[in-house]
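Lab notebook page, bench 4
Experiment: in silico fold of construct C2
Operator: M.H.
Input chain length: 191 residues
Purpose: comparison with the prior construct
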Amino acid sequence: EPPGARVLEVGANQEPLARILADNGYSVVGIDLRPDDYANCWPLNYARLEGDFVRLAPHLAGSFDAIVCTSALEHFGLGTYGIPDPVKDPDYDSKAVDAMYGLLRPGGTCYVTVPVGNRFIVWGAHWRAYDKQSLQERIVRRFTIVKQVFFKSAGAGVPDVDGIVQEEDAWGYEVGDHPHVTFFGILRKGV
């Protein structure tokens, strides 16, 4: 998306991505359950909302050209962060994807990452890992995959070339506690 595009970051806390995008000319809205980790490091240069994305989504005005959601969906609905009144809903990841789809303009792009492997698991109150079927049913859903890349966390026991994992190796990876293989998808909403 060109500078000036309207971008939503879902899970805008652990990385300063929203600030970087705003510094580069994008109109950014960031949403996270948690207070801003970087509030004392850098001034806020984008619109930031604190709260539950799925509950806030219907109140966002207009549509977005792009949505970025990295290392967040796998935690939705599990009570991972211990925030007061946490939502406990095993399908909250899918509900968040539906909300993102609804907020994108036709032809808009969603950039998403989630852990993947040979089976779908929910690791306690912490995170999910998706197999091929659950990735399609819970995350990709109505989007079209424009591009996908699989990469590994340091120490994940799977063959790679410079951190990039072949798709068949990603789906064969034995899912367990960290480290893991990550799916990075560029997803497009239909026109």
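Observations: DSSP finds five helices and ten strands in the chain. The beta strands are 6-10, 27-32, 47-50, 64-69, 104-116, 121-123, 127-129, 144-152, 164-165, 181-188.
Next step: discuss at group meeting.
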